[in-house]
Write a structure and sequence with these properties.
This protein is 32% helix and 21% strand. With 534 residues, it is of the alpha/beta class. This is FAD-dependent oxidoreductase.
Amino acid sequence: MQEPSGTQGLSRRSFLEATALGLGVLAVGGLAGCAPKAAGGDAGSQGASASGGSAADVKWDGEYDVVVCGGGGGGLTAAYSALENGASKVVVLEKGTQCGGTTALAEGAVQAAGTKWQKEKGIADDTPDLLYNYWKTDAEGLVDDELIRNMADNAADNVQWMADSFNITFANVFGAYGTPYLDPANLKDRIHLIADASDPAKTGGAVWTTNAQKAVEGKGGEIITGVEATSLVMDNGAAVGVATKDGKHYKANKGVVLAMAGIEHNEELAFRFNPQHYWDLTTQSVITAATDTGDGIVMGMEVGAQTVFHGCVDLLLPTWSYTNNQNPEIPYILVNMRGTRFVREDTTYAFHCRALFNEAMQWGGAEGSTYMVMDAKMATSDKMCAWSDNAEGGAAAREKALADGTLVQADSLEALAAAIGVPAANLTYTVDKWNADCAAGADSLYGREKQLTALDTAPFYAWKTQNSNIGAIGGLKINTDAAILGADGKPIPHLFGAGVNTAGWIGPYYPGSGTCLQGTLNWGRIAGKSAASA
């Protein structure tokens, strides 16, 4: 997820307001207060078999070729794909009061290499190999090669299929930032911003989910909202249907697709499997749909599915730092509780957010923190900074942040250090060193290249950073058919996964905007096709 560039999208402030509204809507009906299921809990107590054996005694409340659990981008894509690949009856079961999920809250960025939209912008040298290299390198060896190869090879065709199937075009194409060990040759402007083909002023993930829902229903697919899938009905090790919280059972003659998002609001699973996400849940900010409690992951685990968990999709929302290579960056450095720099700031946002987590843990444990340090130029910087006079409502936001202590202002570095509780000598040395490197034109410590701007003009500012988490990384392990794998590494018959319910295709941090939505598109499309032919 990343803010739209130019005039096509939301301002930062309206984006924040829309996000808050979206979360509120999805929480209607008490969903936000529902306790997430624990792995191995009572999900199978609704009269269905969640652990194998015979399902002969189950009374079916509906019979379909394919049952899709989850009405976000992955689920709706899977349903449409199933319908166009021969499934005559398909149902989508959505926990929320409306379809969309976190996809509808996203900016709507999709990565792809070699598309016509790139070529229209003069980007003619991007290839699936370069995209694969980019994802592979940033995964730090913790990703399934076959999965990212599949995604990279399919990416261009996927966005064309999305355009053709859901009346979509792409309003802009821009780029991500690299990491210290990434060959710059693998970086291209390949992040495509979703827009409605009938009204290109409408952009974002909500365009995808709205148009996809219409397309599914137009092909005869059934969508039921306000129903919570709780367990799989299994027969001799194969998925044959789904049980729901209200005691109903939906039969799947061909396949079941789990597309129910990640463990975003499941504190228990985060505690067990994903320390960075647990830290975000308990001390930072998680801004995904309230319905994302890892239900599909729990359902898969109950029938013996493999899982893979890593980190998070984190960014610094008030500053949107290093998310979009078309946006001017704010002059700042990041420091730890010792007042020293610890990371190259001009890397893709989730890379430095992982560093924020690690550094906070190293010096403060669960109560640890890091700080963004700025000078007077912050107040006159680009509109991408929430506290800039150039931002919509920026001056008022700055005054509010100063009043509530979120942002600290001081006339000297020594006073700033005292205000945030770091050693003054360390902070002044750090800033002096940074300023000297800026004058020399090279960051001697970390090799930063972007925004080598001295911090030398009072007043000085410090913001106690807060990760804005837009998704946990991890879920059910799949193969290139989107089949969910069991403990033995073999596919669980007739069970498939889509979107961020699945895992194995993102490593320990998020490699850049558009990766999740390309994965959601790719595995949704494949899962639907596989389920229809199972």
